[in-house]
Structure prediction request, 158 residues.
Amino acid sequence: MEESSMLNKMILNLRATCKYYTGYPKDLGPSKVVHFTSEREFVQLLHQGQPVVVAFTIKCNLTKRLDRMLEEAAAEFDPHVKFMRVECPKYPGFCITRQKTEYPFIEIFHSPEHAANQGKAVDPNITKYSVKVLPFNYDVSVYGFREYFKRQGIKSSD
Prediction:
């Protein structure tokens, strides 16, 4: 009896002090991933000027892993890059416009530039901007996003 309680104390102490990444959940704080609710919210996010990483997903086992990786990447690149997750079964109209057949996939919307009016009288409530859509074909991890941003010339940190 004495040995098993001593062993339990040692194991509890080991679990409390060793937090090497072997499946141990990381404390990332509150989620930084924005969940898609409307196209208006998406456009407002684009108007903020940062690149927006959008994950188009459906419910499957691969999505659980993708969600964890998005959470880690969002915590890493928080003020400079925004991350958004779209559940395609809930918002099929937005996903169909991307014309992809395999889910999940990731696209990066980058460099919104507010176009100046070119001498024509235009409604002041309409803002023109251009967005560059980049497909993401790297490893879905913090390292993969960092390398992708570096290769594309996207500022992701100070």
User: Anything to note?
Assistant: Residues 114-121 have pLDDT under 50 and may be disordered. DSSP finds five helices and five strands in the chain. Residues 110 and 132 are 5 Å apart (CA to CA).
